[in-house]
Amino acid sequence: MATSAKVTKSESKNNHDAADEQADKEQQELIEQIDEVQNEIDKLNENASEEILKVEQKYNTLRQPFFKKRSDLIARIPNFWVTAFVNHPQVSALLNEDDEEALQFLTKVEVQEFEDIKSGYRINFYFDTNPYFTNDILTKEFHLNDTGDPSSQSTPIKWKEGKDLTKKGSSNKGKKRSHDEQESFFSWFCDHADAGADELGEVIKDDIWPNPLQYYLASEVDEETGGDGGEEELDDEGNFEDEEEPEE
Amino acid sequence: MATSAKVTKSESKNNHDAADEQADKEQQELIEQIDEVQNEIDKLNENASEEILKVEQKYNTLRQPFFKKRSDLIARIPNFWVTAFVNHPQVSALLNEDDEEALQFLTKVEVQEFEDIKSGYRINFYFDTNPYFTNDILTKEFHLNDTGDPSSQSTPIKWKEGKDLTKKGSSNKGKKRSHDEQESFFSWFCDHADAGADELGEVIKDDIWPNPLQYYLASEVDEETGGDGGEEELDDEGNFEDEEEPEE
Fold first, then answer.
1. Taking the CB of residue A227, how many other CB atoms lie within 10 A of it?
2. Which cell locations does it reside in (chains A, B) (predicted)?
3. Would you say B175 and B100 are in contact if contact means Cβ atoms under 8 Å apart?
4. Which residues pair with A108 in a beta bridge?
5. CB atoms near residue B100 (< 10 Å)
6. A227: which of A11, A206, A231, B93 fits an S-S bond (Cβ 3.0–4.6 Å)?
7. pLDDT, tens digit, for every residue of B100-122?
8. pLDDT at residue B76 above 90?
9. What distance in Å separates residue A169's CA from the closest CA in chain B?
C-alpha cells in the first residue's frame, strides 16, 4: 500500500514534471521570440537616434553664420558678456568682484557642440589684453567617453604676477553673492572634479548661449520701466515673454 | 568767473550728453541688429524641432507592428506584466499585495505618445475578467495644454462590490514595501493631483515600455545564476549589460 502510493505519487510527479518542462520550454521559446522582436525595436531606435543626430548636425551648421554675425555685433557692445552673466541668477551667484572686473575684458563667448553632440561640448572665452592673464582664449571642454564617463579639461591660465584669481589672498576681495567661499568663475574654469554635473557649463550652453541678448537686457528692463522705443519694440515682439527670463 | 566756469561746465555737459546720446543710439541699433539675428536663430531652432518631430513620428509608426507583435507574445506568458512591475524597483515600491493580486489579470500594456509627442501620452492597461472590477481597459492619459500646464485623466474604475482597492479597510492588506500608506497602483491610477511629475507614468513610458522583457527576466537572472541555455544566449547578446537594469 505504501509502495503503491509512493509509485502513484512518483508517476504523478513525473507527469507534472513533464508538463512543467513543456510549459517551461514553450515559455522559453516565447521569451526568445520577444527578444527577437525587441532587437528589431532596438534597431529602429538606433536608426531614429542617427536620423535625429543628422538633423541636429545639419541645423548646427546652418546656425553657424548667424552665431558668427551675433558674436561680431556683441563684440561692439562694451561689457556685453559680463552684463549677461551678472544678470543670470545662477551665474551671478558664482561671480565675485574680481571675476566681474576680469570678465569686463571678455569680448566673445563661443559654444561648440562636438560633431556627435552627445560626446560633449567646448566653451571658448575670448579676452582682450587685460591685467590678469596673458591668454587670448580660455577654453573649457566637456567630454563623455565611450563608457559614458564625463571628464573636462581647460586651458592653463597664464596669470600675471600676483594676479592669480584662483589663489586666496588679501588681493582677493571675496565673494559678493555666494556663501561658498571656494566658488568663483576662474576656480570653476580650472576645476575638473565634477565634470558630470558642471552646472555653470550647462547654464552657459543651454541657457545663455541660445539667447544671450535676453540676459544682457534683463537689468535694463527692470531699471527703465517703459524703456525707449527700441526696447518697446523688442517687448512687442514677445522676446521678454520667455519663461526662462530671470525676474530679479 | 563763476559764470564763465558755469558756462564751460554746461558746455562740457552738453557735449558729453551728445556723445552719450550718440553712443546710446549706436548701442540701441546694435541691440536691434542682434535681435534680428537672434530671430533668425530662433527660426532655425523651430525648423529643427519640427524636423526632429517628423523623424520621431516616422519611427513611432515604424515601431507599431513590432509593439503589436511583442504584445501578442507577452499576452501568452502568464503574469508577465505583474512580474515586470514587481522587478522594477520604483514600481515595486508602489505596489501592495492587493495590487499584485489584481495585476495578475493585466494581460497587455500599451503606451501611446500623442501625434505631436510633446503634448502627452496615454497608457492603456488591458485586464482579463477579474474579481476586482468590470472594466476591460483602464486608460490613464497625460496632457500638456497650450500653455504647458500638465493634467491627467483616467477611466473611472467600475469596482465590484467591496473590492475597491483605493478604499481603506480591513480587506486592504496594506503596503508591503513602501512606508507611504496612501500609495498603491490603483490610487496612483485615480490620482490627478500631480500630473506634472507623475513618476510612475514616466517610469512605465520611458523605462519599462522600451524594454519590458529585461524587467520580466530580472528576477530569474538573480534566482538562477547561470540560467539555462536560452538565458545564457540572451546574456551573450548583451541584453543584461544595460545600466538601467535593476540589481536587486
1. 16
2. Cytoplasm; Nucleus
3. no
4. A126
5. 18
6. A231
7. 999 999 999 999 988 776 788 99
8. yes
9. 38
> pLDDT: is B219 or B95 the higher one?
B95
Contacts of B125 (CB under 8 A, 6+ apart): B106, B108, B109, B137, B138, B139, B140, B189
In angstroms, the CA B41 to CA A102 distance is: 29
Phi-psi region of A158 (alpha: psi -120 to 50; beta: other; left: phi over 0): beta
B142 - beta bridge partners?
B121, B152
Tell me whether 0.85 is exceeded by the ipTM. Answer: no
Chains A, B: CB pairs < 8 Å:
116
Residue B84 has pLDDT above 90, yes or no: yes
Residue from A70, A107, A40 nearest B65 by CA: A40
Confidence (pTM): 0.70
Best-predicted range by mean pLDDT (A21-25, A58-62, A169-173, A222-226)? A58-62
Q: Which of B35, B55, B69 sits opposite A37 (nearest CB)?
A: B69
Question: Is B67 at the interface with chain A, CB within 8 A?
Answer: yes
Tell me which H or E stretch contains A174. Answer: none
Alpha helices in chain B (DSSP H): 2-75, 80-87, 89-92, 97-103, 185-190, 199-203, 212-223, 229-236
CA A16/CA A19 separation, integer angstroms: 5
Residues of B in contact with A38 (CB under 8 A): 70, 211, 213, 239
What pLDDT, in 10s, does the model give residues B144-164?
887 778 889 999 999 999 999
